[in-house]
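Lab notebook, bench 4. Still working through the backlog of constructs that have no structural model yet. Next entry is a single chain of 281 residues. Request: give me the structure tokens for it.
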Amino acid sequence: MIDLHTHSTFSDGTDTPRELINFALSAGITTLALTDHDSIAGWEEAKQSVRGNLSLVLGAEISCLTSDGISVHMLGLLFDGANAKMAQMLSETRDSRIPRMKKMIELLNNEGIDITMEDVLNVVADGATVGRPHLADALVARGFIASRNEAFDGLLNNDSKFYVSHLAPTPEVAIAQIKEAGGVSVIAHPFASFRGATLELDAFEPLVKAGLNGIEVNHRDQTETERLQLLDIAKGMSLVITGSSDYHGAGKLNSLGENSTDPRQWELLEAMADQRRVVKQ
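Model written out:
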């Protein structure tokens, strides 16, 4: 079973990389990608934890913004973690998250929701990339909402008046940088409409021209109709088709392996990287 999209405590997951590896082994996962938001800080612990027949794919989920302000997430897999330009892009994207968080807190405060930056930082693991799920956790801790899912269905949805975008590369820039660093790019949940505005059909052509390798077709936040549309796009543009859990531990309902990637599609995707970087025992 191949799961190419998961998160640890180094972004907004609730499992450490070691715990994530343990759960993956228990769930029968054979190939697992660690893709924390704009961060590769969990790579080393994950590499040290690999054992048995598990293959570890190192990557990151890169926050992007289109020129017209649509939020896009790009999975970068199998890239060289020592690439300086890649490290700089990830660092700049992470750094922009703090002022964004402060602005969202300000907007919530203006509506009488008494939450502070300290409340948010209290639920962020050391070294983790700060994101909306942490704000959701702080709101849960203060009793304003019951769960992360409730937050993303309402207060923190992309279309909410409390949503604030942050400095981020365009998808084309992220794809080009992933490629320069020797990796492969897969656009994550591009038609997850419940999250807010999504890409239009004509947006894929420039991404393919930039070097996009695949589309995450099977994801719980995409309807069957949306999956079929993406399947047609992937086949029509000769892109790799992936399925993933987007696992966050206890933070979301997603279960490891609930959507997976066909081994033949994974073989195609891995072959597109400039060298083999899968980690095994």
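Notes after review: The longest helix spans residues 97-110. The two ends are 18 Å apart (CA to CA). Flag for follow-up if needed.
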